[in-house]
Amino acid sequence: MEEAKFIWMDGELVAWGEARVHVLSHALHYGTAVLEGTRAFETERGPAVFRLDEHLRRLLLSARIIGLAMPYTLEELREATLRTVAANGRPSCYIRHLAHRGYGEMGIAARNCPTTVSIATWEWGALLGSGVRLMTSSWRRNDPMVVPTSAKATGPYLNSVLAKQEALDAGYDEAVLLNAAGYVSECTGANLFVVRDGLLATPPASAGALEGLTQDTVERLAGDLGVRAVRRELMRSDLYAADEVFLCGTAAGIVPVTSVDKRELGHGSVTARLADAYDAVVHGRDERYQHWLTPVTA
User: Fold this and answer.
1) What is the SS3 assignment for 263?
2) In which residue ranges of the chain is CATH 3.30.470.10 found?
3) Do the beta carbons of residue 32 and residue 155 sit within 8 Å?
4) How far apart are CA 2 and CA 239, in angstroms?
5) What are the counts of helices (DSSP H) followed by strands (DSSP E) for the chain?
């Protein structure tokens, strides 16, 4: 990873190497943190952050779900985000928001631990490349009745780490997780769509899938392209029988799946059309979605 100049921490821009937390921070021991992944894209009008307010609303909602007090408003976080991107001077970048329960006392309850908020940016290319070999993981997705999967919290990501490691060790690029009932949930860091007979389908939140902002973007773009999109339960066999499968997420963008459990899939026209439409939107070439772009000013 190429380091940027600054990281925003609790109201101040600090040098990258000086952005430190205490070893006894509560979140380091118990996973009490929430995060967001956001991107700034280069446009003809300068850098712009894609769907920034929606990401920040989800960050605040995630904090509320896990009972983490947030010391900043959405407006303050927006200003801090734009300030950080501008200070680091890159026309495009990945943005990581993190709010975690810091150092104060040890123990599960830790009611006297303050919340620390940080915003970091760095250059990060397409996370999964141009095509993905997918495997079904032996690990099951976190049960939303046990762990609140509607919150983008750090603790439950151990589930994704284990599944990703398993996939890479087996020679694949990514893993798809099934839920406790055996239905498709999502991948380790991206939502999943299948295309069959012209219909676009993605698992619902009740399957343990995070309600992704890129997932929502894809559904809206599909409507503009005349492609019907639905959220419904998917079985593992639905992946094998699909005409197309693709993944989507802030870090990944829209990337086609070339195989699932060694069953080959073709590069489909629906995936390609959606990827082209997404690229036009995030880079400001589609005027209909300019409201999704928050300009970064120096």
Assistant:
1) strand
2) 6-122
3) yes
4) 36
5) 7, 16
DSSP secondary structure of 188-240: SSSEEEEEETTEEEE--GGGT----HHHHHHHHHHHHTT--EEE----HHHHH
Is residue 207 within 8 Å of residue 184, measured between CB atoms? Answer: yes
User: Which of 5, 152, 164, 262 does the annotation list as catalytic?
Assistant: 152
Say if CB 223 and CB 273 are below 8 A apart. no
Q: Is 152 a catalytic residue?
A: yes
HSE-CB of 26 using CA atoms within 13 angstroms: 22
Instruction: Report if pTM > 0.85.
Output: yes
Give the burial string for 64-75 (b: 16+ CB within 10 Å, else e).
eebebebebeee
Residues in Cβ contact with 157 at an 8 Å cutoff, skipping those fewer than 6 apart = none
Q: Which CATH class is domain 6-122?
A: alpha beta
Percent of the chain with pLDDT over 90: 90
Which tokens belong to 224? 């503009």
As a whole number of angstroms, the distance between CA 136 and CA 53 comes to 34
What class is the 132-282 domain? alpha beta
* Digit-coded pLDDT (tens) for 3-52: 999 999 999 999 999 999 999 999 999 999 999 999 999 999 999 999 99
State how far the Cα of 283 lies from the Cα of 38, in Å rounded to an integer: 14
Q: How far apart are CA 202 and CA 265, in angstroms?
A: 17
pLDDT, tens digit (0-9, with 9 covering 90-100), for 207-223: 999 999 999 999 999 99
Query: Cα–Cα distance between 164 and 187 in angstroms, integer?
Result: 9
Predicted confidence (pLDDT) at residue 109 exceeds the cutoff of 80: yes
Distance CA 194, CA 25 (A): 41
Ranges of CATH 3.20.10.10 domains, the chain:
132-282
Tokens of 284: 């400001």
